[in-house]
Amino acid sequence: MTKLAKNTFVLIFFLDGVGLGGADPEENPFVSAALPHLTQLLGEAWYTAGRGPVTAARASLVPTDANLGMDGRPQSATGQAAILTGRNVPHLVGEHYGPKPNPAVAGVIGGGTLFHEVVAAGGSAALITPYPDRYFEAVASGRRLLSSVPLSAVGAGVTLMGADDLRAGRAVSPDFTGAGWRHHLGYDDVPLLSLPEAGRQIAAIAASYDFSFFEHWPTDQIGHRGTLAEATAHLEAIDGAVGGLLEAWDDSRGLLIITSDHGNLEEKSHRQHTRNPVPTILVGRDHARYAANIHDLTDIAGVVRDCLALTDPDAPGDNGRPII
C-alpha cells in the first residue's frame, strides 16, 4: 500500500467560477480591485489571460485549460470532478455538465478521487467548508443533490462538517468571516472572524490534515448574478483572506493550490461561464517544479499525488506509479 510522504500536506483552495480575463476595467473586476497580497505574491496584472505563466520567489501561476478538448462552456460538476480525479471527465461523459453531477459524472467520481486515495493510503483528508443543518436535511430527503466536491468526500468516507465544526474552529465558512451563517442562516453563536483571521485559520486547519479542500462558491454566484462593483468588492475580500492564509502558511511543509473549475467572474459583460483559462496558483513546497507539469484541470491531481507520494491509480502496472 502507498505510504504518504511524511511532514507534507496539501490544501486545494478552490474558487468556483474564476478565470483569467481581459484588461478592460468595465468587464473584468480584477482590473479595478485592490489586491495587495496576490499582487505582491505574483506581480502586476497576473490575472490577465495573455500574461502567461508566472514564476516568482514564493509562488507560481499557470493559466490552466478548463475546456479539456470539448465544445461548449465548462461546467462545475465535470470541472470539479476533473480536478479531484485527474481524469478528463467531460470527455468520459461526453459533455461539460453541471452544476450538480448526473449519474455519469457521479460514476466517474465513484471510481476514485484524491479523497479516496489519501484515505486508502492511511492518511487524513477533510473538506473544511461546513454545511448548515438544513443542507443535510435536504440531502437526506432527496430534495438536494451533493455537488462534486462533497460527493467526492462522502464517497471516501470523509464526514462533512457542520455547525459544530464551525463553532469549534475546525471549519471555515465559505464567506470566510461567518457573517453569512449569522445573518442569513440564523446561527447567532458562530464566531465572527476578520478576513485575515479566516485565512490564518484555514492554514492552521490544513496543517492538521494530509489533504484538505476549501470550497468557496460565492465567486460563481456573483459571476452569475452580481454587479461589477459587487464582484470587485468580493475579490478584495478574497485577497484579504488570502493575505492571512499566506501569512500563516508553512512553505517548507505545505503546498497550497489555488484554482478554479471554469471562468465566469472575470467577464461581467454577461452572466455565463467562459472558456477562458483559469488561474492555478501554487505556493510553497516545490511550486515551480509542480507548475511546469500543469496544463489543464486534469493535471492538478497529479501534482497532489506527487507531493504526497501517492500513486496514479490509472497508470499501467499493478500499483500505479508516481504521476510526475
User: In the CATH hierarchy, what is the superfamily?
Assistant: Alkaline Phosphatase, subunit A
N-to-C order of helices and strands: EHHEEHHHHEHHHHHEHHEEHH
Tertiary shape: globular
Mean pLDDT, all residues = 95
User: Low-confidence segments, ≥5 residues, pLDDT <50?
Assistant: 318-324
Distance between the termini: 19 Å
- Kindly provide the name of the CATH class: Alpha Beta
- Which strand order does the major sheet show? 2-3-7-6-1-5-4
Q: What would you say the CATH architecture is?
A: 3-Layer(aba) Sandwich
Short description:
The chain has 324 residues and is of the alpha/beta class.
Walk me through this protein's architecture:
The protein is 39% helix and 11% strand. The chain is α/β, with parallel strands linked by helices. The chain has a single domain (9-308), classed as Alkaline Phosphatase, subunit A (3-Layer(aba) Sandwich), CATH 3.40.720.10. It has a 7-stranded mixed sheet with strand order 2-3-7-6-1-5-4, sandwiched between helices. The model is unreliable at 318-324 (pLDDT under 50).
